[in-house]
Amino acid sequence: MKIKLFKKGDIAVILVILVIAATFWIYKSQNTDRLEAVITVDGKTVETIDLSAVNEKIIFEPDTNPKVVIVAENGEIYFESADCEDKLCINCGKLSRKGDTAVCLPARTVVTVSGSDVGIMTY
What we know:
This protein has two helices and seven strands. By secondary structure, it is an alpha+beta fold. The strands form two sheets. The protein has a four-stranded antiparallel sheet with strand order 2-1-7-6. The model is unreliable at 117-123 (pLDDT under 50).
């Protein structure tokens, strides 16, 4: 008695799924739209950076109390240091996708990434 592992219909379904996955992967890899970071202090935009064009390390030190240092490099932006007690803004890590946000509440500073780079995961 010969047992078949796959039927004709199973192979067709697997092929359709593989084609759909390959299409999404190709679309995502070609989607190199512009990302920009917006630094806001006290509700006012103080700097807008095109993250797609940043190749070298750029340091921003907005006039805040407590002091914060924001770094943009290699298509990412992050809080490098902060004089506040909790350091939650530093723990947010590097921001590189649309919708990523880091906030230093004591310094009233917000860093938000906007653009059209859409990730699969939403926080």
